[in-house]
Amino acid sequence: MTREIEDEDAAMDQVAERLATRFPAIDAEAISTIVREAYAAFADAHVRDFIPVLVEREAKTRLQTAA
User: Fold this and answer.
1) pLDDT at 3 > cutoff 90
2) What is the C-alpha to C-alpha distance for residues 55 and 48, in angstroms, rounded to an integer?
3) pTM exceeds 0.85, yes or no
4) DSSP H or E run through 16
5) Is residue 30 within 8 Å of 21, Cβ to Cβ?
6) Counting beta carbons within 10 angstroms of the beta carbon of residue 12, is it exposed (0 to 12), middle (13 to 18) or buried (19 or more)?
7) Per-residue pLDDT, 6
8) Domains in the chain, start-ordered, CATH in brackets?
């Protein structure tokens, strides 16, 4: 279980980095916060395979409305 959490944490860092590149006008810390909030919404999900994709999609949508 710990391995899954570490993998997901690394994936969330990668999502934040990709989004920071895509949205350079938005502070990287704000992007990281949005990614972590989106990730928290999936805390109870049983199937974890697609969480990075879903988090990135949700965070990107939020960033597009903020930009």
Assistant:
1) no
2) 11
3) yes
4) helix 2-22
5) no
6) buried
7) 82
8) 2-66 (1.10.8)
d(CA 61, CA 36): 14
Cα(34)–Cα(38) distance, integer angstroms: 6
Look up tokens 């990730």; give the residue: 39
Average per-residue pLDDT for the chain: 92
| Euclidean distance between CA atoms 42 and 49, whole angstroms | 11
Cα 40 from Cα 36, distance rounded (Å): 6
> Which value, in Å, is the radius of gyration of the alpha carbons in the chain?
12
The answer to whether the beta carbons of residues 12 and 52 sit under 8 Å apart is yes
